[in-house]
């Protein structure tokens, strides 16, 4: 299907809007941790608050995906921005840890709404051969936000003279303004494949594909797990590096620079995504990146100086840059027709499940064995992802150079051939 496009201006505007919303969230998350510390939170409480951020989205993702499969995607974007800004403002005014946790959940719901709408637009408006590139460019917006947000938080937050409570609140107010500014780029984002104004997809099938059918489609579950592991690593880094910095005597400003260095390496990775896929193939690239991330993440647990921590985080950011865009492409191409937004929502549900379970587990481990223990846990999770990464394309038809998709030109003969016994192209499901 050829997308009618006067250029790819819609993608550029979407990347800009995503940069601002992700920048707001990336600034707010460490600010929430610092404000919670100022209110008397320990490492375990920080883990609980980080987990609540993902709790509301855990239940909202699939209904939002169902709605988007048979309707417009763009309305979710301003709704998400409004919820993010609201969560930031009220987190900055909250005077107790339970209130902070609740408003952190509102912030997470807003981020989910924005991401489901944005990812669905990219999937709907990108030709299959352009999806790796467009998802890679789309996730550059997230990386740019993750680059700017922590630096901004580190510059605003100050721990001198007991000012952390006040300055962390100021950082949350700035985050709200940053999120609101993204609305300026949300115009003419969504259009139909024929170039007309976007509206409900009349051609969408009436029957609703079950969640179980989507999950059992070959490639969906593995893509979800890899995405969960990569996002959990990013999330715990954002939430726990301030705690590590406090214990190792690293100032908030330096912690912000370290987190932004990780994000800058992720941007570099995604800019180089297409040539890396051509060189290695999608399967090998995902496996190698997960393995490298596992080793580097475990290395953060070592009591290294700040400059060595920066080197580890730069390498980790580069490795973590692969998983998100390629897992999006894997899930979109494997999902049944008419259920792609739901499949992306299920992927986000898995992400949020990881964001609930991983920080909670990290909080328990940090309470028992110190703040270095969560990074060892993440190393193990990413090691499992490396093993899973090599599985989705086994038994599939020959891969094209862009990353392992079945070659569309090859058609099975009328009689039964070796290729005709490969998994169905429509569902990606192996024969039973």
Give Rg in angstroms.
21 Å
Mean pLDDT equals 78
Our count of helices gives 15
Share of β-strand residues: under 5%
Contiguous low-pLDDT stretches (5 residues minimum) are: 1-7, 195-206, 397-432
Computed structural class: mainly alpha
Describe the main β-sheet briefly.
none
| Record field, number of beta strands | 0
Give, in order, the helices and strands: HHHHHHHHHHHHHHH
Percent of residues in helical segments?
A: 55-70%
Distance between the termini: 30 Å
Gross morphology: globular
Verbal overview:
With 432 residues, the chain is mostly helical. 70% of the residues lie in helices and 0% in strands. It has 15 helices and no strands. The protein has helices at residues 9-38, 43-52, 55-69, 76-93, 97-125, 131-156, 164-181, 211-215, 220-248, 252-271, 273-280, 282-299, 306-334, 340-369, 373-389. Helix 2 runs antiparallel to helix 9 (220-248), helix 6 packs antiparallel against helix 13 (306-334) and helix 12 runs antiparallel to helix 13. The longest helix has 30 residues, at 9-38. The two termini are 30 Å apart.
């Amino acid at each position: 299907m050829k997308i009618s496009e006067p250029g790819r201006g819609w993608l550029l505007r979407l990347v800009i809007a995503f940069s601002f919303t992700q920048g707001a969230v990336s600034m707010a998350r460490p600010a929430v941790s610092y404000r919670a510390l100022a209110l008397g939170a320990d490492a375990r409480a920080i883990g609980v608050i980080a987990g609540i951020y993902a709790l509301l989205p855990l239940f909202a993702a699939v209904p939002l995906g169902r709605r988007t499969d048979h309707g417009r995607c763009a309305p979710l974007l301003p709704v998400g921005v409004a919820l993010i800004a609201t969560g930031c403002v009220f987190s900055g005014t909250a005077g107790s840890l339970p209130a902070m946790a609740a408003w952190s959940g509102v912030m997470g719901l807003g981020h989910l709404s924005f991401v489901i709408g944005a990812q669905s637009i990219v999937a709907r408006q990108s030709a299959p051969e352009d999806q790796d590139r467009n998802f890679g460019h789309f996730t550059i917006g997230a990386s740019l936000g993750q680059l700017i947000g922590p630096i901004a938080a580190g510059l605003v937050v100050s721990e001198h003279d007991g000012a952390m409570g006040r300055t962390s609140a100021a950082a949350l107010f700035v985050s709200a303004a940053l999120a609101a500014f993204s609305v300026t780029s949300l115009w003419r984002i969504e259009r139909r494949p024929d170039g007309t104004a976007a509206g409900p997809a009349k051609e969408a099938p009436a029957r609703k594909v079950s969640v179980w059918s989507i999950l059992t489609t070959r490639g969906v579950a593995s893509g979800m797990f890899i995405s969960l592991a990569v996002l959990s690593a990013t999330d715990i880094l954002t939430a726990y590096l301030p705690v590590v910095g406090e214990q190792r005597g690293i100032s908030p400003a330096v912690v912000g620079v370290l987190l932004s260095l990780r994000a800058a390496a992720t941007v570099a990775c995604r800019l180089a995504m297409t040539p890396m896929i051509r060189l290695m193939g999608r399967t090998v690239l995902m496996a190698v990146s997960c393995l490298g991330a596992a080793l580097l993440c475990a290395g953060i647990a070592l009591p290294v100086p700040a400059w060595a921590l920066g080197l580890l985080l730069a390498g980790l950011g580069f490795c973590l840059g692969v998983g998100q865009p390629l897992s999006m492409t894997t899930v979109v191409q494997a999902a049944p027709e008419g259920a792609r937004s739901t499949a992306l929502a299920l992927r986000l549900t898995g992400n949020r499940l990881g964001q609930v379970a991983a920080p909670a587990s990290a909080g328990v481990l940090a309470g028992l064995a110190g703040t270095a223990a969560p990074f060892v846990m993440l190393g193990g999770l990413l090691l499992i992802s490396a093993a899973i990464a090599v599985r989705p394309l086994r038994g599939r038809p020959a891969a094209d150079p862009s990353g392992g998709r079945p070659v569309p030109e090859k058609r099975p003969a009328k009689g039964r051939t070796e290729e005709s016994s490969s998994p169905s192209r429509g569902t990606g499901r192996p024969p039973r």
